[in-house]
Give the backbone structure.
Amino acid sequence: MPSRRAPEGSLADWSPAKTLPLLKRQLDALRRFKGAKYRDLKLEHSSWFSQTAMILGHGFGEDHQNCYSFNHTGYAVGEYDRYTPEETKEQLNFEARLASEEGCLSTCIMELELTLPEDLRDQAGRERPQTNAGEISIDVFISHSSGDTELAGALVELLRSALPGLHPKRIRCTSVAGYKLTGGSDTNNKLREELREARVFIGILTNQSLHSTYVLFELGARWGANSQFTPLLAAGLRSSDLKAPLSGLHAHSCDTETDLHQMLDEIGKSLSLERASPDVYDRHLKKIADLSRVEGKRRLEAVPTPAQQSRGFAKPRIEQAPPRQAKLYLDELDQWTITTGPGEWSGVVVPFYYDPKSEARPEIYVRAHLVFLDKESGDRIVVPAACWIGEYLNAAVLKPGDEKCVLLLAFNSQGEAITCKSRREHYNEFQSGVGLVDYVPMPKTPQTVEITLLWNNDRDTLTYKFEIPDRRRPGKV
């Protein structure tokens, strides 16, 4: 059975002069992985990852944000749809992960260089960053989900009207025309640089953005750098909905005009820009406040209340397909994926399909609760937060047309069976994912299984039941 435990916290015990060249060597090794096939490098990359994590632990201390950020690089995913072959998905995820790991190490190296005298930096082979001639640095970076593009556009209009001295080319908002990256830019590296150097960072926080991988990376990177950070609540999200460490920051609300005025004052002071008279930007301020309230109401109404459901109102239609066998791969960060290649694990997964023809079709975040009932002994095994295939958290994001699988049983090379559960029912998005999964041995006796899906803050549920045959008989799984 696998045994992964989060390392005990410790302080840094290596000097920057010792850590810096080791990290640069790891960065060079990482860059040699680019362009290669994931399956050819799987073991080598796993070894590289463990060694790099060890160096970071010694150089910064295992509780340092840089160590957490490095562990989070495993959450990076490529862009593909549900029809993409599994092998292609693995490769795209690997390439996204390499880019994320490269950015994290580059940031760590820069931090270490800043702690060393100039002569020691040069001895360590410092690579000085180059800036293109005529390039304008970014003053304001707006982090947001692609689902909140209209809110982001309204915020840009408000900033431009309220702070007339703010040059439009000094604003980065990747979903709004005129404020996107220029063509041919290395997207990840450029955004990482601007995120780090921007004098003002505004995070538009909505239920959608808090489930966006990119937004979480941006928020975590800015928070970890201890740089200026303006959380802006929108579309119905409240301060009480935030988890640590965001809950420890004072957040402004788009719904409150006085909050928006105060935010503009703070940004103007940070940039040494004079704020215009409220008469000049008042219509833009009211526009974003009204848009936030309307959007919050719309998103709330998209999910029927329990009372509405009991009277027959529509809700998402989630269909369970029969359990099926699959080859499985388990990575360093406790994520299970289905693979077509050789693997240490096989298993049984339960697919769930979100019918796009459902009358109600909101994006939902679904947890799975499993109960195994032994038909011979009557013993029960309860799994309150089951693992989803291809997900690091204990919740899967489901959009209409998606099919995602819950891990029911996993078998090692000796045929021993386990099921998996998250140690936490609610995951802290700024914390390492390693060691958050427990492995529960499963008997071979026949079982009755009950799977309950929960979403909408566990107010909406669907339950499915089926049988697992007696696996003591040859050929039965």
Summary: Confidence is low (pLDDT under 50) at residues 1-9, 121-134, 308-313, 424-435. Residues 86-114 form the longest helix (29 residues). Residues 140-301 form a domain with the Rossmann fold fold (CATH 3.40.50). The first strand starts at residue 140 and ends at 143.
